[in-house]
Amino acid sequence: MFTENDSKQIARHGLTPEAVARQLENFRRGFPALKVSRAASPGDGIRVLAPGQGGPPRSVTTPRHPAFAP
To answer: Going by DSSP bridges, is the β-strand pair 41-42/45-46 parallel, antiparallel, or unpaired?
Structure first.
């Protein structure tokens, strides 16, 4: 199911192939609707970072998924 490079990346994230397979299956099946009580706001579900905190934006594209963007 996973390539050798996938397995290395999974290990670097401290996960097992079985854990990742379970996560993928959850996405395939879908999740139940979440009942939202109110919108999140800074200090109430939204964490506001200070300038310089958090580092530069990271690319989420990969050679296998060059057009992926969240």
So the answer is: parallel
Taking residue 21's Cβ as centre, other Cβ atoms within 10 Å add up to 13
- 37 neighbors 45 (Cβ within 8 angstroms): no
Evaluate whether 10 touches 2 at the Cβ level (below 8 Å).
yes
User: What does pTM read for this prediction?
Assistant: 0.51
In this structure, the number of other CB atoms found within 10 A of the CB of residue 44 comes to: 8
Q: What is the pLDDT along the chain (70 residues), one digit of tens a residue?
A: 899 999 999 999 999 999 999 999 999 999 999 899 999 999 899 988 888 887 776 666 666 656 544 4
